[in-house]
Design a protein that fits this description.
The C terminus is likely disordered. It is built from 36 helices and 33 strands. α9 runs parallel beside α10 and α13 crosses α14. The strands form eight sheets. Strands 10-11-12-13-14-17-18-19 form an eight-stranded parallel beta barrel, surrounded by six helices. β8 and β9 form a beta hairpin. It is 45% helix and 15% strand. It is of the alpha/beta class and 1017 residues long. The structure holds cobalamin (B12).
């Protein structure tokens, strides 16, 4: 047997059971072979019991299988989306074994309509575009299908796979990212027999329907996962209760489950029963590693993530150092001994209550926050979680929410990924007054000896007066109705919105009621929601509060509707409207529905989270005049180009209107360009609001106006797409600069990457640019004359003192990775080859295969027409050249110190520290650059260092390629933000061009100008 294949799987729990059985058999027989697992999805992209592809991948990926894929049920056309998802996200090779099309029932027999040629073409396209490694044919395919497939793909190299995937948990149907954006992921705590009397009562009476309701309520209030604990002293059968509760919740809620138990049999029962990917709550080393070993072993077997408490044989870790030490030990056991991935571990750094006033614990919140920061920095990939409310245990009910909230806020800023919270015990950070924030911060950061006393006294007074204050003072008193309405949305108060709206509309003015209503919508309601979103984005509001604001918004919109004009009569046209798959935001879409319906259009509203297939099928069915798509997340906006391309592929011609917070006009133009390079003829129209949507619909349904509108959007898109290409690559046909390449043969050098663990700080300091430090980083800017001399003298002294202190305590640690690669220019591209290319000689035919990556640089549109690639040997010359890449950092500690100072409110010290660390990173880059020059034997002054983000080298995304070439993450512990910025910030990445004439130049328009232009678009 070469391979074990589990295929045509309809039920994800059954697949898990089958994999478990296969692994058992491997153990029993001593034989083991690769395992390939294929699920079967229907035309809407779900398994029979509703599991979508993201959930299937999350559930199966950690189960020690070797290939994942799809087979049967549909032809390749319906597999396109899920295959693309697997291709982009699976670290395992992906297989695709479709039927020969969707079967037709002809005279009672299934007939498969797809001929060999289109079948083979579709699969070849998947291989090329979605990186599929295994192909084949399922029902209805014949030897002719497979023969053609083999002919077409024989000899195709296996595509590379992503090295790591984003960590997800999953319910039976959906995946949930463990990294929520913005954090934290919220763990609902009410299905816990220890924490909730109601749940316990329901458990004892085995009222599972009511238990399901508790679960659903928490999800409705914003919980991303549900913690489940069924341990009760009254019953001995925790495992059986756990099995039943898990079974009920697994089929009734769409969020992943967190199995909260200390008993291994209950844990096993839960993991066996849950179809999704669970999290285990929790393990620790209190009695050594024996129990933890068993928990990790189950976690590995069932692909669960594990919350690990920082407790060891000595008890709960109290200091950040100790928390990190325990975490390191747990990490070693879980990752190295049990083979778990770092992202399977969620460390809970634990909080102690601050309410006792006990000096021993006065610093414990600081240590907890610092523990989070240290664990995240020293153990890349792991996550952190916290049960926040322990901190305030023992304080009065009125005092607890503020302390909990402030702690949650600062923990998230320090890197907390998950929190166990009850929204009822949290006051939104945004609502806490400056005075109360400070009182809480004094206590949390142990800033004053009387912090606890002051905190208690303050809240005692508030508690005493709360009743009367609440009755006496209405916070909206004295506000104008627009301000009141804004306040109510922001502060989640439904009552009174109708009256505010009525007052606003009925205030005498020269506007009609309709105009006033539109005015309220655009100038009061939408900005209020935007503010809610901004506060959510910065961590000042957590999700449950956003949901409540959304409800107030919905109520306001529905009251406002009566004032909007309605045009009755025959329909002006039909639009199929939906919020795209994966996206739950529907307030905007509903508004679009109202405006269009009021203006005479028939709106077929498909709701939210709608799969592409459903939208397209409906549009065909109702012969729509247009499709309207709403998406508010960056991630889900990707559904839009997907749908446009699918419409084009099927030869359909619905104009598509798109809208939502994550997209803009440029996005609209760009997705009008199809994958095959043509434009989507019927048009894609970005609409900034519902009224623009109405304008577009009016023009589309007017035979006179339509050609103009479509023509204009095509023109705009062509211009944008041309600009996109100009930005990305040098324009074809544009004249090259007249730089003559001077290749440096890579043959004489040791190629590949190397690590510089540390550099002598004293020597690095010698390269510090004091001018940049004093003027740019420390704010002297353009000071001159006496003022400058005075500033300089002060700065010199400060610098000297800081340098002495750093040299003594070592919080700046210059370190780096760099390396050399063979390369060639290809127009505006620089091709980087694997070092082994040298062995084959530059004329080797296998050169193409040795290409490991390529960077694309812009060309100056006029003047010298310089492009960075011009400094390297062009491909046509046949010669190989050499390029150096480097990444340097001064380490994580600088950031930590900065954050600590900020947290302490020492903003001025933080500012100077930040400036020095950033400039030391620059000096480190220069130090390494000089070293590289020496290694390459370049004369003094030859060779230039270019960092990404500058006009000649603008694409920050290229940092990813540099990270793939150099061991930046593994050796320096660095990472990239979603915008491809370096973390820690005190770091630089650069490409080194050895050409003697290499110089710095601009490209007509700076990156900042480009960005401003794109934002304005
Ligand atoms: C309310 C809200 C929620 C509510 C949604 C409730 C509901 N039923 O809609 C809840 C709490 C459920 C929620 C959840 C989440 N949210 Co939210 N949410 C918001 C918020 C604050 C307001 C959105 C809104 O209703 N605006 C008002 C409406 C009227 O505006 P609109 O939708 O943009 O629509 C207008 C135009 O865009 C246009 N339009 C929109 N669509 C269309 C379509 C057509 C055809 C046309 C013509 C026009 C058009 O017309 C409308 C008005 O005229 C935004 C912040 C923001 N700035 O948008 C974040 C925001 C969108 N959410 C965000 C996030 C991250 C999330 C979560 C992932 C959070 C989490 N960690 O769980 C989840 C997502 C879950 C999911 N899978 O979708 C981020 C998105 C970040 C990103 N770049 O991807 C935002 C931007 C907040 C932020 N600053 O971080 N959210």
């Amino acid at each position: 047997m070469d391979l074990c294949l589990i295929e045509t799987s309809q039920d994800i729990l059954e697949v898990k059971a089958a994999i478990s059985g296969v692994h058992k058999a491997f153990v029993e027989t001593g034989i083991s072979v690769p395992v390939q697992v294929q699920v079967t999805l229907d035309t809407t992209g779900r398994m029979l019991l509703g599991t979508d592809i993201a959930a299937a991948l999350a559930i199966l990926e950690g189960l020690e299988i070797d290939v994942i894929g799809l087979n049967c049920s549909t032809g390749p056309e319906h597999m396109r989306e899920p295959i693309r998802y697997l291709g982009e996200n699976s670290v395992m090779p992906v297989s695709c074994i479709p039927n020969a099309g969707l079967p037709l029932n002809v005279d009672g027999e299934a007939v498969y309509p797809l001929e060999p040629a289109p079948f083979a073409e579709a699969l070849a396209e998947f291989v090329e575009k979605s990186n599929i490694s295994v192909v084949g044919g399922c029902c209805g395919t014949t030897p002719a299908h497979l023969k053609l497939l083999v002919e077409k793909l024989h000899g195709t190299a296996h595509p590379p796979r992503p090295q790591a995937s984003e960590p997800y948990l999953a319910s039976a149907t959906r995946a949930a990212p463990m990294h929520q954006e913005p954090p934290p992921l919220l763990i609902g705590e009410r299905c816990n027999a220890q924490g909730s009397k109601k749940f316990k009562r329901l458990l004892l009476t085995e009222d599972y329907d009511a238990i399901l309701e508790i679960g659903r309520e928490q999800v409705d209030y914003g919980a991303h996962t549900l913690d489940i604990s069924t341990a009760v002293t009254e019953r001995p059968d925790e495992a059986e209760l756990m099995r039943k509760v898990v079974k009920k919740l697994a089929s009734g809620v769409e969020v992943p489950l967190v199995i909260d138990t200390t008993e291994l049999d209950a844990l096993k029962a839960a993991l066996e029963t849950a179809p999704g990917r669970c999290m285990i709550n929790s393990t620790h080393l209190e009695s050594g590693r024996a129990k933890a070993d068993q928990v990790f072993s189950l976690a590995k077997q069932y692909n669960a993530a594990v919350i690990c408490l920082t407790i060891d044989e000595a008890g709960m870790a109290k200091t950040a150092d100790k928390k990190l030490e325990v975490a390191l030990r747990v990490y070693q056991i879980a990752v190295e001994d049990h083979g778990l991935r770092p992202s399977d571990l969620i460390f809970d750094t634990l909080t102690f209550t601050l309410a006792t006033g006990d000096a021993e614990f006065a610093n414990s919140a600081v240590e907890t926050i610092e523990g989070i920061r240290r664990i995240k920095a020293d153990l890349p990939g792991v996550l952190c979680s916290l049960g926040v409310s322990n901190l305030s245990f023992g304080l009065s009910a009125g005092a607890r929410p503020v302390l909990n909230s402030v702690m949650l806020y600062h923990s998230v800023q320090a890197g907390l990924d998950m929190a166990i919270v009850n929204p009822a015990h949290i006051t939104p950070y945004a609502d806490i007054s400056q005075e109360e924030r400070e009182l809480a911060e004094d206590l949390i950061y142990n800033r004053r000896t009387d912090a606890l006393q002051r905190y208690i006294v303050h809240f005692d007074q508030v508690d005493d007066t709360q009743q009367t204050v609440a009755q006496a003072v209405d916070p909206t008193e004295g506000m104008a109705p627009a301000g009141r309405l804004h306040w109510r949305i922001l502060h989640r108060h439904k009552d009174g919105v109708e009256a505010d709206i009525d007052e606003l509309i009925n205030t005498p003015s020269d506007k009609s009621r309709h105009e006033s209503a539109v005015n309220v919508l655009n100038n009061v309601l939408l900005p209020a929601m935007k503010e809610v979103g901004d506060k959510f984005g910065t961590g000042e509001l957590i999700l449950p509060f956003v949901l409540q604001s959304a409800e107030v918004m919905k109520k306001s919109v529905s009251h406002l509707e009566q004032y909007l004009e309605k045009k009755e009569g025959t329909t002006k046209g039909t639009i199929v409207l939906a919020t795209v798959y994966g996206d739950v935001h529907d307030i905007g879409k509903n508004l679009v529905k109202t405006i269009l319906a009021n203006n005479g259009y028939t709106v077929v509203d498909l709701g939210k989270q709608v799969p592409a297939e459903t939208i397209i099928t409906k549009a065909v069915e109702v012969q729509a005049d247009a499709i309207g798509l709403s998406a508010l997340l960056v991630n889900t906006s990707k559904q839009m180009p997907l749908i446009v391309n699918e419409l084009h592929r099927r030869g359909l011609s619905f104009p598509v209107l798109i809208g939502g917070a994550a997209i803009n006009r440029r996005f609209g133009w760009r997705i009008l360009g199809l994958e095959d390079g043509s434009l989507y003829e019927p048009g894609v129209f970005y609409c900034k609001d519902a009224f623009e949507g109405l304008g577009v619909m009016d023009a589309l349904t007017d035979p006179q106006a339509r050609p103009d509108l479509v023509g204009r959007i095509h023109q705009e898109a062509e211009f944008e797409l041309g600009r996109a290409t100009r930005e990305k690559t040098a324009q074809p046909g544009i004249i090259r600069s007249d730089v003559t390449p001077r290749p440096l043969s890579p043959a004489g050098y040791t190629l590949g990457s190397r690590l510089v663990r540390s550099m002598p700080l004293e020597l690095v300091f010698q390269l510090l640019s004091k001018n940049e430090l004093f003027r740019l980083s420390w704010g002297a800017k353009n000071a001159h004359g006496e003022e400058w001399e005075k500033l300089k003298a002060g700065f010199e002294k400060r610098l000297e003192k800081m340098q002495r202190e750093v040299l003594r305590s070592g919080w700046l640690k210059p370190q780096a990775v760099y390396g050399y690669w063979p390369c060639q220019a290809d127009g505006g591209d620089l091709i980087i080859y694997d070092p082994s290319v040298i062995a084959g000689g530059p004329t080797s035919e296998a050169m193409q295969e040795k290409e490991i990556t390529r960077f694309t640089f812009p060309r100056q549109p006029d003047g010298d027409r310089l492009c960075l690639s011009d400094y390297f040997a062009p491909r046509e010359s046949g010669a190989l050249d050499l390029v150096a890449l480097q990444v340097v950092t001064v380490g994580q500690e600088a950031t930590e110190r900065f954050d600590q100072l900020q947290a302490k409110g020492d903003y001025s010290e933080a500012y100077f520290l930040h400036g020095l660390s950033v400039q030391t990173a620059e000096a480190t880059a220069e130090y390494l650059h000089r070293h590289i020059r020496r290694e390459l034997g370049l004369p003094e002054g030859q060779g230039k260092r270019y960092s990404w983000g500058y006009p000649a080298i603008p694409e920050l995304e290229d940092h990813r390629k540099v990270f793939d070439l150099l061991p930046v993450e593994d050796e320096l512990g660095m990472s990239l933000t979603s915008a491809f910025q370096l973390v820690p910030e005190q770091s630089t990445a650069a490409i080194i061009v050895h050409h003697p004439e290499a110089k710095y130049y601009s490209i007509g328009e700076s990156r900042v100008e480009q960005l401003i232009r794109s934002a304005a678009g």
